[in-house]
Q: What sequence folds into this?
């Protein structure tokens, strides 16, 4: 593991494949439920609005972003809704979003900046070395 805290090599590839698996599973279950694809398309990017938390600084921004990009909340919500015999469409969309982000290499954020993730540096930081 490099000193910046990001995973590399086979572990990084495995985490990205895991993201693909999560996306595929969520989309498969969503489709089997006969849910609206319009709803899916409208809500798929909603978790990315959490990046607005960075207006409050990198530490708070990372915490907010990570809360919306962790599987914990949508899985718990989905289990609760399923046990209550309610639609799990929204948690499935949320899980698909998180998995897709992981597949693309967008990881959980470190409080040092938006581009510092557990899957490596993003964007300009990668190309120029500037955080």
A:
């Amino acid at each position: 593991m490099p000193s910046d805290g990001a995973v590399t090599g086979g572990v990084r590839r495995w985490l990205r494949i895991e993201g693909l698996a999560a996306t595929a599973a969520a989309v498969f279950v969503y489709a089997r439920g006969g849910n609206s694809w319009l709803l899916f398309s409208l809500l798929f990017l909603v978790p990315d609005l959490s990046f607005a938390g960075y207006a409050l600084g990198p530490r708070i921004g990372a915490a907010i972003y990570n809360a919306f990009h962790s599987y914990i909340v949508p899985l718990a919500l989905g289990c609760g809704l399923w046990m209550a015999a309610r639609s799990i469409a929204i948690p499935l969309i949320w899980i698909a979003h998180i998995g897709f982000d992981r597949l693309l290499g967008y990881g959980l954020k470190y409080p040092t900046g938006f581009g510092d993730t557990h899957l490596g540096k993003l964007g300009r930081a990668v190309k120029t070395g500037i955080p």
